[in-house]
Amino acid sequence: MTTTARTADLTAQVAQALLAQADELADELDAAVFEASPTLATDATIAADTSASNRAHLRRWLGAMARHPGEPMSSDAPPEALDIARSVVRRGVEPEALIHAYRRGQNLSWRRWMETAAATIPDKGELIEVLEDSSAAMFAYTDVMLDSVLAEAQREREELLGGALARRTETIRLILDDAPIDEQRASRQLGYELARRHTAIVLWAEPQGDVQGALERAAAALAHAAGAHRPLTMPAGTSALWAWLGTDRDPEPAALRQAMTRVEPNIRAALGATLPGITGFRRSHATALATQDLLAGNPDAPRATTYRDVEIVALAAHDRAHTTAFIASTLGPLAADTAQATRLRETLRAYLHDGSRAPRTAHRLNTHRNTILHRVARAEELLGHPVDEHRLELALALELAHWLGVRGAAQREGTQP
Fold it and tell me: Do 282 and 371 belong together in one domain?
């Protein structure tokens, strides 16, 4: 079908209107895709890879429609789309999840395109021409991209099935799934002694990318700091790595944090509880995943965090929407996403942790006692009550805000201190 100059111009207008709403549309795409394929939202890393792929496709297609409507598009999938193909295979997710995701994404994108076109083009005849041209372009693009992604997934699967990595991955999955498996046999298959104490680690990169070499180096640095011979590792997508450190005694958290200062600055680590035996191997991993899930949405969180640091938060934050509402209702204007509110929250958090002893908090924060008292008084003004009232709820809300961030809570509260 030949696209007329008028149809091309109108198509470009619709694409430009949607590009202005790209962030909102990308969030809608994420929600729709995760609803259609819940396995893609099972942990923070694979969810981030999926989101990056959605955004790459939006930029690619809308950009082409805005600049060159009616012209053939590149058949090469965006790198982010190939990343998620490899990630789902490495996690043992079936390719059908990608098919459901692409089809749901296509349906939502087409609905938003039609709505925007109808609002942009008043002439019914011109609107029909634009929709006919753009529907053919969108459906063809989706088909070509999905074929490329499924082909990449198949290549990754064949590579994994071909060697030692596949056998190691399968053994680890059996342990994590709590399948019946002999501990000594599993140790031989892994080349890793399971009859020890295990500290599981989730390492990931922000922003995402194919950084497996950097992640392996970070795992090795942590193993050295823990006194472990070498880490057992397993790729968990293109931008994440699962690792275990086998030791005879618990590693020192301070040494692990110090080791992270010597690796690439975009690498972050969630450190699970140190636990014994094959059961500890599995449970430590679960606590590392829980820690990463808390940190992944908070760019201000430390680069290395232990489960012990966030255990209370992890137990309290299973329902993230209710957690956000709790932070907002408990902290009120103190939940604002501003530098001033952050300083007040961190001061109050330390003050409560120190048993309301201003001199100790002043020493901890390297400031004057009167400064601490002034900040506490200002925080009480914003809270509308003394800090000794509802102390437990207040301390929990401050802890949740510290680890999860306050962006959602600040939007709910809608006020500034």
Answer: no
